[in-house]
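To make the argument concrete, we let one protein speak, a sequence paired with a row of structure tokens, as a model reads it:
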Amino acid sequence: MSDDATPTDHQAIPNGIQAPHHLNLPYPDKPELITSNLQKLIELVPNPRHKFVFERLISHMHEFVNETSITTEEWMNTIQFLTRVGQTCTPIRQEFILLSDVLGVSALVDSLNCPPVKGATESSVLGPFFTEDAPDVEQGGSIASEGKGKYMYVEGRVLSTDGKPVPDAVIETWETDDLGFYDTQYKGREFADCRGRLRSDKEGKYGYRAVVPICYPIPGDGPVGELLLNLGRHNMRPNHLHLMVEAPGFRKLVTALYPAGDEFLSSDAVFGVKKGLVVKLEEVNDDAEARKRGFPKGGSFKLLKFDIILSPEAEAEAARKAFAEERAQTSGRPQ
């Protein structure tokens, strides 16, 4: 052992799985043998779902490498890019979610797993800016501190698909301020702002003060921002208000509301907009009404009225299975 070597108390420990001699794997002297050997090893995976997923993953990855003739330099650049994506992540910044978002994967996974249930509010992408520390807000309270943007009041009811009210539903909601930043994007963040947690009342009603959302660029100072520049794509999201709603017996709803008229609605950088989630804001020019609703400076405000329709868990699961079966029959792929 050299002087600069690090001594250890134990030898390196294998994982205990024996070499698969029964497979008689040929030496991978040719490109196609690398793929076929790996596929043979995938056959040993005990979990059927894992086996199917990894078989498809390996097949498509190797096909992509063969089809594009990826160079060693390009592949190393890819590894370094993904490394930087991971290094950019912090407890309040999720660059990997952002990467998934801009590649359309988040929206695709959401669409496959949350097909629309008749009458229910459609889902949308979670995004990378959700946090667990939203403060509790009373009915009519504010999720944004004063001066964070133009006044907006959000109200409606939480209902089941049969029209019955859903009381005590937990509503998490968050948005940017009028500069297009989430609170987590500010250095030295001391408390949660422009986000809150409230509950529907016994009639399913909810209401809270917020600020008018604006369109904004997703973070461009990291590897995902560089990727969009290389692809010639803008990094803008249309104005929106995030909502996550949970109630016992109902499918958890992750969605967002998009005020009409934004120029980026049809080219959202993360593919989150759905037609049923585009809403109209009403202009209320009534100083007394503004003060009555708790806006300290009075004046005018925007009113967003929206009933949140939750799908019972059984209905949601039936819709998901039916959608999966239909896709499987069309594509010939197993579910």
User: Anything to note?
Assistant: The chain has two domains: 30-69, 101-317. The chain has a mean pLDDT of 95. The two ends are 54 Å apart (CA to CA).
